[in-house]
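dumping this here so i dont lose it
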C-alpha cells in the first residue's frame, strides 16, 4: 500500500465510526501519513529511520512494548474514565437532591 492509501484507510474508519478512537502503528517513513491521520500515533524506532518517530505521539524501540500499551494502559485509561463519569454523576445527584427536596418543603416559594 502507498502512504496515501494507508492514511485514507484511517480516515475512512474515522468517518464510518466517528465515536471510535483510531491508533496507527508504523515503523518507517512510509507510515508517517497514517500516523499523522490517526488520533493516536505509535512509532517503532528501527532500521528504517526516525521519520515515523518524529511524527508519532508515542515511540517504542521494539514491537513487544506495544502489547503493554494496548492491553494495560488502554484498559486502565478506560477504567479511570468510567470511574470519573460515575463519580461526577452521583456527586451531582447527591448535591441537587437536598435542594430539590427543600423546594417541595417550601412549596417552591422564593
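and the seq i came up w/
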Amino acid at each position: 500500500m502507498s502512504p496515501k492509501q494507508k492514511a485514507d484507510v484511517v480516515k475512512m474508519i474515522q468517518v464510518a465510526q466517528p465515536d471510535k478512537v483510531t491508533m496507527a502503528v508504523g515503523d518507517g517513513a512510509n507510515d508517517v501519513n497514517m500516523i499523522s491521520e490517526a488520533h493516536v500515533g505509535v512509532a517503532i524506532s528501527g532500521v528504517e529511520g526516525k521519520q515515523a518517530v518524529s511524527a508519532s505521539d508515542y515511540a517504542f524501540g521494539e514491537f513487544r512494548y506495544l502489547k503493554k500499551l494496548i492491553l494495560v494502559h488502554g484498559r486502565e485509561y478506560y477504567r479511570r474514565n468510567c470511574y470519573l463519569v460515575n463519580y461526577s454523576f452521583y456527586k451531582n445527584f447527591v448535591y441537587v437532591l437536598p435542594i430539590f427536596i427543600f423546594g417541595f418543603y417550601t412549596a417552591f416559594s422564593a
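The radius of gyration is 23 Å.
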